[in-house]
Specification:
By secondary structure, this protein is mostly beta strands. The protein has 1 helix and 37 strands. The protein has a 25-stranded parallel β-sheet that branches. A hairpin with a 2-residue loop joins strand 9 and strand 10. It is elongated and about 85 Å long.
Length: 475
């Protein structure tokens, strides 16, 4: 019995040695040193969209794969431009321009990350910056190209602008980082054709005045600074424009504001006979929160389009004085779980801890809407909230000759209300608000005393002006 057990144990040892030696002979555990071994890449060209000079781009990545049946040793991975390159790479978790002796198992892959900073020069138009990552394997070289389009720009980085600052259209865009501030009794004037690219969380604070002199051919544009296609029309990429308490005499003409959090916020601007913000032929679109948010403010807007907001297109809280003539408001994207109407009006007031009301006069509301489109995907796209604590607080609204998405809220026979989604006769909600043939908006408006509307948002003459088309676009 002992002898049989001894021979059986000897047999197991021999079998284990045989299995071990057999597994050690697998090709996959060897190293492929043949000249025919190749690497494969998820792309042979890493391309960056336009990048502003001195500003780091987003990070792109690609994979390096070993399709061979054995492991390989990549003897060198090198950024050809070296330390002087505009590009920076991270190879296998290491930031470097030259990585040596990287062993890559059969069927395995690694990520390589790349980003770029464009150095300034005297070229205004976009220019091309290139480099190459070289992979040396068993004596032969494979390549992945890097390419970026760079553009010079003027930079405003967290500073107060001088009084009477003028941003001229010299062919270079303006990049706003962090905060730009216009002090009391100072004016910032922006010429036609200027585009201001706003970085994440950037905000333009106006305690003085802002004048935007855009034209139909050359509007003033405020937009986010991420130029990759994936970020096109993405809201919430910067904060917006905020007019503070002492701000006065703000006029925006042919101005486009897009892709922010709150397009325009107007704080506590007493009327004193003059609107503190005038909008003419402006577009505010794709905001993650509100398009135009007003608090005890005074605003006039004509031929203006506000659409695609995550919350309200127009929010008027704590009262104020507002006039909207031939404007379009449309919410077509359900960006938040609890959708709200396109327009909100209230004369609510803040109460102190002792329940007294501070300066209740500021909460009087006067709001006028003439020849406007107010639309969206709810049954009622206007929300009216009358202050319930004191009947002496005015809640004065007038809606005349508008097309309104409304069911429960009644606006009188001078307005057109209907639940049909396509009733206004837009070409395409969310992108094109031109009128189509047969739209009930055609010649359905009225002339508004004090607000002569001779043309539309595209400078097309309204004929006859006594019965203009409803909305900011004439048919």
């Amino acid at each position: 019995m002992i002898q049989r057990s001894f021979y059986f144990s000897l047999f197991l040892v021999a079998l284990a040695v045989l299995v071990y030696s057999g597994s050690g002979c697998k090709k996959t555990d060897g190293l492929d040193t043949s000249s025919s071994a190749q690497l494969s890449f998820s792309t042979n060209l890493v391309q960056f969209d336009t990048v502003f000079t001195t500003v780091g781009s987003s990070t792109h990545n690609f994979t390096v794969h070993n399709p061979n049946k054995q492991a390989v040793n990549i003897s060198d991975i090198r950024l050809q431009g070296g330390v002087n390159s505009s590009f920076r790479v991270n190879i296998n978790g290491t930031s470097t321009t030259d990585f040596t002796n990287l062993r890559l198992a059969a069927g395995d892959s690694i990520f390589i990350f790349a980003e770029v900073t464009i150095h300034p020069n005297n070229i205004n138009l976009p220019f091309v910056v290139t480099d190459t990552i070289l992979f040396t394997l068993n004596g032969h070289v494979q390549k992945v190209a890097l390419q970026a389009f760079g553009q010079n720009a003027h930079f405003i980085i967290n500073r107060a602008l001088g009084c009477d600052t003028v941003i001229h259209n010299d062919g270079k865009p303006v990049v706003l980082y962090d905060t730009a501030y216009v002090g009391p009794r100072c004016t910032l004037t922006i010429d036609a054709g200027v585009t201001i690219y706003c970085h994440k969380n950037a905000v333009l604070l106006i305690d003085g005045s802002l004048i935007c002199n855009g034209t139909q051919a050359q509007p003033v544009i405020f937009r986010q600074d991420r130029l990759e296609q994936a970020y096109e029309n993405q809201p919430g990429q910067w904060y917006g424009i905020r007019f503070l308490d002492s701000s006065i005499n703000n006029t925006l003409t042919h101005t486009i504001i897009e892709e922010g959090t709150v397009g325009i916020e107007v704080d506590s601007l007493p009327y004193a006979g003059n609107p503190k913000l005038s909008l003419s032929k402006c577009i505010i679109k794709n905001m993650s929160s509100d398009g135009l948010a007003c608090f005890s403010a005074s605003v006039n807007a004509t031929n203006t389009l506000i659409y695609g907001s995550g919350l309200y297109n127009l929010y008027c809280g704590l009262g104020g004085i507002y006039n909207f003539v031939n404007c379009d408001f449309d919410i077509i994207n359900d960006m938040v779980a609890n959708r709200v109407p396109s327009i909100h009006l209230d004369n609510q007031i803040y109460k102190k801890a002792d329940s007294t009301v501070p300066n209740p006069k500021l909460s009087d509301l006067s709001a006028r809407f003439y020849n406007c489109m107010i639309w969206g995907d709810l049954n009622d796209e206007v929300e009216l909230i009358h202050h319930k604590y004191s009947p002496s607080i005015a809640f004065d609204t007038l809606f005349s000759h508008n097309i309104i998405k409304a069911q429960k809220v009644k606006f009188g026979s001078v307005n057109k209300t209907n639940q049909n989604q396509y009733y206004p006769g837009f070409v395409a909600e969310g992108s094109n608000y031109h009128l189509v043939a047969g739209s009930p908006a055609i010649k359905a408006g009225i002339a508004v005393p004090g607000f002569p509307i001779a043309d539309d948002i595209e400078d097309n003459q309204r004929v006859p002006p006594t019965t203009p088309d409803i909305g900011c676009y004439k048919y």
